[in-house]
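The passage that follows is intended for readers who have already worked through the single-chain material. We present the inputs for a multi-component assembly, then the predicted structure in tokenized form, and finally a short commentary. You are encouraged to pause after the input and sketch how you expect the pieces to fit together before reading on.
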Amino acid sequence: MQAFSRECAVRGIGELSTLDRKSAIVKSDESNFNKPEPADRDLASAAMVSADVAARFVELLTAHQRKLHAYISTLMLGDTAAADVLQETNIDLWSKAEEFDFERPFLPWAFAFARQRVMAFRKSQSRSRLLFSDAAMARIDEECIRLAGEADSRLVALQNCLKKLNERQSYLIGERYNAKTSVKLLAARLGETAHNVASQLHRIRMALARCVDATLAAEERP
Amino acid sequence: MSAHEKRLHELIDFVLDGSCTDDERQEFARLIDDHPELIQGLAEEVFIHSLLQWQNESITRDLAVFGESQPEGAACDLANLESTTQPVQDSRRKATWFVAAAVLVSGVFALWQLGKDRHWKATIWDDLAVAELVDVENVTWAEESTALKPGSLIVPGRLRTEAGEFTMRFRSGPIVHVIGAVSLMVESDMLVHLDRGQATARVPDSLKGFTIKTPVIDVIDQGTEFGVATRENGFTDVVVFDGKVDLADRISNEHAPTRLLQGEAARIDRQGAIQRIMQVGRDQKGSWWTADYPTSGDNVIQEVSDNIPPSDGSKYFCYQINYHGLVEDVFAYADDPHQWNGLTAAGLPEFLLGADYVKTFNDYRYLNDFQMKVLMSRPANLYVFFDNRVPAPKWLTDQFEDTGIDIGLDEGPWGSEEKALRPDLPEFENAVGGGQSIDNIFSVWHRRCIDGTPVILGIMGEKTQARAMYGIAATPLDGGPAGPIPAPMFQN
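Having made your guess, compare it with the prediction:
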């Protein structure tokens, strides 16, 4: 058996990591999106962050992880690479920490970096990924910003809504998200068609979405 | 509901789990472009999907590894918190993130102060890595292979290939060999989700708890070498080559884990039912195994089975056929650490070298109603190695001839449980090479197998003198051992 070859290592860098590929960072061709300058992740730049700024920035970054992930994952329509894009966004954000104005809200600033990363990812994976029009993408982005800003309260509401599912619904959600069973495998196990199971999961998610909305609306009422 | 809305709902789960075809993906994108009124509902549903993913901690894994570098006490505190209520889980997430970020900060400042000329991202991947690739052969990584990072590092994420084989060394110690068309999610240095394909893990004795999860079962190592295969039909095969594993039911979660010991194997169906696998075949290098019957024609022994009902305690006993595997110092039994050797330094007789051989069960040596069936895949020389301490039984003398050639059995150490029960047992150790540490002599019996008629083997004998179970080997009738057996396709 041969050792891990240089060819494979190069392929790993070239095909799997967008981190090295500054050329993949979208420049200025998507007019619908407000983009910061491409991040420079040189060590020297990151190391210029003062200890005080670093501590405050860490706090912000930590507090907004859930919202950032929700934004990225939704914008990528659930693509499994969302965790990687979040990771790369975190690195971008950290490398620009010294530029952040603590007098301004963190999330819109962070979303701009995340959006840029998602667009770069879409571009690098264009052959096999979803390709929406710019208009559709901008519309999805609007929805993502609206929803992700409330990710923390929506997650708390979701946890209560999950308790209201019946046994069958709980089983399907548990298998799909806890056990990470694919729809096709789940369908085979249940002796049902994949479309039937997908349809049930869709209905459960929509019911959860309505439940979350209703919970938040009730909380807002005096 | 409009037709396009219905169609969108049909497609969305396949888009979300990545199993859609290119045509379906394009159709989905077209639907969104053509019907922007669907976007709000779509975003809300995908948002719930994202929160559900987050809730099940499939996202924080990437940075949770930072927390593992904390002092032991801190790690214990976090582990304890995890098992309590949801608010505490939130605290733990925040704590993990804080730790992650703090480590990030301290790492950056340390590097700055040292003036190292290292690229930051390389440090990041190195910190995040849970394993390294140590061998790769004929692998083309699918683009979803997000776990693979520069420098042969593996971070939490997915690995997917359509062919070839590779080996990962996890930083916690296990070495995992993967072969064929495989899709797996590396969760941490102690947890892998095997969604498709075959993996064989060797875990240090000192480490317990390394887990391979499949859609139907959690295979939890208890210090061992074991194999797991997720088959296309959703079934899971598990075989234990050394040590023991626990199988935790993922379907009902109602039962205590089922323990599989060395030499045992089981197939778990989609309902979580566990059945015995009668045999597995393994190549000489140990790089692949299969619970299916080989179709290449290069193997000599095709099938072995016995008449032991599951209620007799042999519920998961599994014969191991080692293709072309008979060489000096190979393990003779699936359940005991004894080895076949030549009687002198010259080693095993040349006509046996490279033969297919079966690891039988030494536990079966005192059974009185035992019957074993052996089926050849081609005309063959079939050999039985029979303990000279026991008179040759009728089934042996009727069907085989004594070649007049003997080989030896080098007995390995007693198991710790047996030794604890009987401290008076003599000490045994395996030695290396022919003629070393031979404890018992076995005669080599031979017969020719011309057609496809199964050969029936019987009991060792009715008396109860000390003995060891017989061994089985076979070579092609028309000459020496065949060439290497290609690995199965593992499509199942």
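Commentary: Confidence is low (pLDDT under 50) at residues 1-47 of chain A. Chain A touches chain B through 94 residues (CB under 8 Å). How closely did your sketch match?
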